[in-house]
Amino acid sequence: MRLRQALAYVSLSPRERARVRGKRAVNQTATGISPDASVAEHSLTTPGRLAACPTLVRTAALALCLLLVASLAYAQRRGGRRAWWGESAVSDDIRTAREVESHSTGTPNWTNPAGFEQDVFTFARIRYLHGGRGGRGGWSTDIPDSDLNLSYRLQQMTALRVDPDGRVLGLTDDDLANYPWIYIVEAGALYLNDAECKRLRDYLLNGGFLMFDDFWGERDWENMAEVMKQVFPERDFVELPLDHPLYHCVFDIRAKGQVPNVGLGVESEWNGGVTWERPDAQDVHHRVIFDDAGRIMVFATHNTDNGDGWEREGESDFYFRNFSEKISYPLGINVIFYAMTH
């Protein structure tokens, strides 16, 4: 419920926002939400309480999105579900997500109190060579918007202070151990050499946590699983049951929802609810690899694109309400909070 309250305001029209602002009798102490706050006014309050809601989704972008819906449907039916939503050009030598220009509705910015700049959680994205048998994208898919939007929401919803820039690094970089949570996207294209496999194994066995996201169908899964067998020949993936504490540590998640790319997600409003990108990708799986003590080392979300849910939250009200708000943000926040507290 807190996520719905916190995020719903950014999707209102200017007139609706004015009506909300007029209702000053809202019990701010109970909700922790100030609906007329701006990005500049945002700051964390006491641990575990949501601070003032930022106007992260820009009204102009929402209005433009509504004007483009009819054209979008036509473009999508001609093929290319990403006709209106491309990816940023990304250099292989970037160090942070902040260095990449937004290709969505803009990314939020924030600062941490002086003296605490290093005492933060950092969204760390892994750079890899595109050499797998599956996959259509690569390591930079959805950057920077997914990284920075989720980081901002995480700081809103939890007591964690979060790095406003993110980090991009390779598995053999010297500072890998400084980042307890790492993210790999489009794992159907993943390739790791022997040195990277060894570093990843050591990193995970020493307390690190890896999340895979946005890979679809059996071919993508087989490629990722084959790579991870090089890392852990003695371990297998298992499906994580919904009664596991990960699903209930911040938000109460009761289903493994599917998040499509934004183009298909918008189209699902009138295509009968199709949200899978491939015929063999209709069922969502959350599979994990445990260490000997039962700690989750690897969390793989298969046949779903949480990254688009974080990245594209401002481009469509329907997509935001049905996928970003209901599925991708609760899951992303739970995964990170669980990893950082276990």
Short précis:
The chain has 342 residues and is of the alpha/beta class. The protein has ten helices and nine strands.
What does this structure look like?
This protein has a seven-stranded mixed sheet with strand order 3-1-4-6-9-8-7. It has 342 residues and is an alpha/beta fold. It has a single domain (56-341), classed as Domain of unknown function DUF4159 (Rossmann fold), CATH 3.40.50.12140. The two termini are 25 Å apart. Helices cover 34% and strands 10% of the residues. It contains ten helices and nine strands. Mean pLDDT is 80; it is low at 1-85. Strand 8 and strand 9 (296-302) form a beta hairpin.
Quickly count the domains.
1
Q: Just give the CATH class.
A: Alpha Beta
Structural class assignment:
alpha/beta
The CATH architecture can be given as 3-Layer(aba) Sandwich
Our count of helices gives 10
Topology-level CATH name: Rossmann fold
E-strand count: 9
Mean pLDDT: 80
Strand content: 5-15%
For this entry, give a set of tags.
two-stranded antiparallel sheet; Rossmann fold; 342 residues; alpha/beta; disordered N terminus
Protein topology:
Layout: H1 2-8, H2 14-22, H3 28-31, H4 59-77, E1 124-126, E2 129-130, H5 145-157, E3 167-169, E4 181-185, E5 190-191, H6 194-205, E6 209-213, H7 217-231, E7 238-239, H8 262-267, E8 285-290, E9 296-302, H9 306-311, H10 317-341
Parallel strand pairs: 1-3, 1-4, 4-6, 6-9
Antiparallel strand pairs: 2-5, 7-8, 8-9
Helix pairs in contact: 1-10, 5-10, 6-7
